[in-house]
Amino acid sequence: MHRLLRGEVFMLGGFVVAAAVTILLVMPPVIDPAAAQWAQTSTGPLTAADRDLLVKVRQAGLWEMPAGEYAKTRAESQRVKEVGRLIMEDHMKLDLLTRQVAKRLGVALPDEPSPQQQSWMAQLAAESGPAFDKDYANLLRDAHGKVFTVIAAVRSGTRNSEIRKFSEDCMRFVMRHMALLESTGLVNHNALPEPPTPAPAPPVAMAVDSRRHT
């Protein structure tokens, strides 16, 4: 009787092992999506956020360089013409740097701006005079503010030394461009996105007057 029970248990165990092996062979392995987006490079791990930064900086240049060309003939303000030229020249340098870094890290870059950026280009291409000046200054200032937050977030958390240096270079360019655009006197700061609401400050302890206890 005991030998029979041991035989049944052995057979049941064999079936369980066989079933487990079958499941492992048939079912695909479970991969953590976050881990799958990481890649190891000679300068450290490369994350999806690191790659996205390269893409966004590349796309920024792909529409701001043509916008600078528009400013040569469509702007009325001499200051807008000058700012357009300076930003265009900076983006030519930054675009070269972006492509070099992307090549070293094996990141594919787009060859055209985003749909929204293309709509901004179309808007500026249809304007001239004061309307162009105002929209050029405000569209570019708004775009620089948004990409600046992306750069800062990547710089604060990247594990890749190449991206760390690249993001620092980008921050210098973007800060210079925001100041240039604001120097036109046409930027509507009230239309820019407000900074995020800070967390409530902890309560401040009341100071104790030692003289009241003497």
TrEMBL record:
Claim: Repeat is one of the keywords in the record: no
Limits of the DUF4142 domain: 49-178
Keyword annotations from UniProtKB, A to Z: Membrane, Transmembrane, Transmembrane helix
Region (Disordered): 194-214
Transmembrane residue ranges: 9-31
Stored Gene3D superfamilies: 1.20.1260.10
Pfam families assigned to the protein according to its UniProt record, in alphabetical order: DUF4142
Ranges of compositional bias, category Pro residues: 194-203
Keyword Transmembrane: yes
PANTHER family associated with the record: BLR2558 PROTEIN
Protein name from the UniProt record: DUF4142 domain-containing protein
Organism of provenance: Nonomuraea longispora
